[in-house]
Amino acid sequence: MPKERADHPFVFCTEISQVELTGHRARDLTELVNHLDTVPGSVIYHHTHHFLRQHHFLSPEPRNDFAYWVTQVLKEEKLGEQLAAIDTVRFRSIRALREKLIDVIRHYLAQGRTSRTVPEAEAFHFMKSRSFIVSTALQARTLGEFAAGIEKVSVHALYHHIFEARLRLERGTNDFSNWLENELDEKTIADAINRMDPYTQTLDALRSRILRAINDRLRERAGTPHAP
Length: 228
Fold this sequence. Notes:
This protein is of the alpha+beta class. It has helices at about 30-40, 40-55, 65-70, 75-85, 95-110, 145-150, 155-170, 175-185, 185-195, 205-220, and strands at about 10-25, 125-140. Helices cover about 55% and strands about 15% of the residues.
């Protein structure tokens, strides 16, 4: 039975990201895959997600950095397409995403394909991102307060609760769905938000879809028709 008021409030947070060079670089596919096997998970996360923070207004999203470098610099278009086609939303952990990237490249190399070695100036430089989480002044205990918070927070807060929580922090779901299900017993709306693909739309478009789902539920609770 859905609850009107949560025992524990949802605290909206945002984040500040700091990008750092790791000192690792690759000039060919062998070096790329060897480094993918050993670099910290924060490196994998940065090169597959930083575009979502920096270009949240773009849709569809740009390719991940590995796919871009393989295609544009190494000129390995077939492999680049395979890397770009990896469905990031399917993965519940950075570890699983790392393994998929490595498997695709190693399978390509196992077919006896030769890869060019590029000059130092065109090398792939591995970077990592460090996130600093900051609480905002917004909290919610009811579904209505939660909708108001979603409407007010920045896209950086949306990014944190949607992407960081699910993949980098390996919670298996986004923070919104987790709170809605466990604090308000709103499993239906939690599942609906969890099914939304955040990689194929802008963060503002995702915000609009989440708000529509919540507002429809609020109207349902009040016994009024859904918005057209």
